[in-house]
Amino acid sequence: MTAKPNILVIGTGGTIAGRGKAAVNTSAYLCSVLGIDEVLDTIPQALALANLRSEQLLQTGSENFNNEHLLAIGKRVANVLARQDVDGVVITHGTDTIEETAYFLHLTLKSVKPVVVVGSMRPPSAMSSDAALNLYDAIAVAAHPSSRGIGTLVVANSEIHTARDVVKSNSFKLEAFRSPYGALGYVIEGVPRYYRRPSRAHTLDTPWSLDGLAGLPKVDIAYGYGALESDALASIAANARGLIFVGTGNGNVASHLLSTLREAARRGVHVVRASRTGNGIVLRNGTQPDDEYGWLTVDDQVPQKARLLLALALTQGCDTNTLQAAFERY
Ligand code: GLU
């Protein structure tokens, strides 16, 4: 019999660590109140999959996570992955921003060992909670050799998603996580089954590592609509090094906002056109002359992940062509 893998489960809070007053409270409950060991105690079956150790790194809703939280999680995970006695890591996390933490790890960790970020839409106390099975599945995925070398994963509702693509796309249903090109695979009865691999570069194939990284450049997001006033947009752009402008449709910019964004770019703010549709490609030099204005486009990335990609890219330089290439490669 081969030895069981050693998996470290890191708790950070969220609904998976939540508790409601009654079983009918599927949406109204307290988040981030159960310790990681209390959550793990609900799935003794996971001990058949792996040797488990746990630690409580944070205990807060993921809506609170800022750049410092991401760096703290990333540095801790990078540190434990370097250890010989750790074969994989599971991070329990609130679902609100699970895709951001997962993508940040996907772009910065330098290891082939599986890292799985997992949450739940209902707390363990609720009727038909997804907490126990999601965590069990996440441990199964992290423990399995077929999960090595494919970057950071998000496991939910029996699906395995790549961190690059997954987004939370529903506020309360169990079927909340969506990848525009589909999941990488399923988990069934404690065994992952993969059908595709991520095609964009990640982990060992990125130039970014968390070693010595003390902070991230300030990149902000502005949500576009026709009634957005130019002074409100200008104030968001005022102190940013980068600005993700979430335009309508194919990254469209209302005519009365063009001069504000062009002025920001002239001041050295890296303006990136994204789309508020949540799907599809924002084509460079399509609806706007991006070359002429010195603007960038996100390719197909959603604004919240484009923010992280641009912030990491800016840690290595600010040449427009190099920054645009990052959106096409990762
Ligand atoms: N406050 C929660 C969070 O940490 C709510 C969502 C959840 O975990 O499902 O994101």
Which helices and strands appear, and what pairs or packs with what?
Elements: E1 6-11, H1 36-41, E2 51-56, H2 67-81, E3 88-92, H3 98-108, E4 115-118, H4 131-143, E5 152-156, E6 159-162, E7 167-168, E8 177-178, E9 185-188, E10 191-194, E11 219-223, H5 230-237, E12 242-247, H6 258-266, E13 270-275, H7 290-293, E14 296-297, H8 303-314, H9 320-329
Parallel strand pairs: 1-2, 1-3, 3-4, 4-5, 11-12, 12-13, 13-14
Antiparallel strand pairs: 5-6, 6-9, 7-8, 9-10
Helix pairs in contact: 2-3, 3-8, 8-9
The structure holds glutamic acid.
Residues 14-15, 31, 61-63, 94-96, 119, 121 line the site of glutamic acid (GLU).
CATH architecture of the largest domain: 3-Layer(aba) Sandwich
Which CATH first-tier class of the largest domain would you pick? Alpha Beta
Order of the strands making up the biggest sheet:
2-1-3-4-5-6-9-10
Task: Summarize the main sheet.
Answer: 8 strands, mixed
Family: Belongs to the asparaginase 1 family.
InterPro entries: AsnASE_II, Asp/glu_Ase-like_sf, Asparaginase/glutaminase-like, Asparaginase/glutaminase_AS1, Asparaginase/glutaminase_AS2, Asparaginase_C, L-asparaginase_C, L-asparaginase_N
Keywords: Hydrolase, Plasmid
Active site: 15, 15 (o-isoaspartyl threonine intermediate), 95
Walkthrough of the structure:
This protein is α/β, with parallel strands linked by helices. The chain folds into 2 domains: 6-205, L-asparaginase, N-terminal domain (Rossmann fold, 3-Layer(aba) Sandwich); 219-328, Rossmann fold (3-Layer(aba) Sandwich). The protein is 27% helix and 18% strand. The chain has 9 helices and 14 strands. The protein has helices spanning 36-41, 67-81, 98-108, 131-143, 230-237, 258-266, 290-293, 303-314, 320-329, and strands at residues 6-11, 51-56, 88-92, 115-118, 152-156, 159-162, 167-168, 177-178, 185-188, 191-194, 219-223, 242-247, 270-275, 296-297. The strands form 3 sheets. The chain has an 8-stranded mixed β-sheet, sandwiched between helices. The protein has a 4-stranded parallel β-sheet with strand order 11-12-13-14, sandwiched between helices. Helix 2 (67-81) packs across helix 3 and helix 8 crosses helix 9 (320-329). The structure holds glutamic acid. Glutamic acid is lined by residues 14-15, 31, 61-63, 94-96, 119, 121.
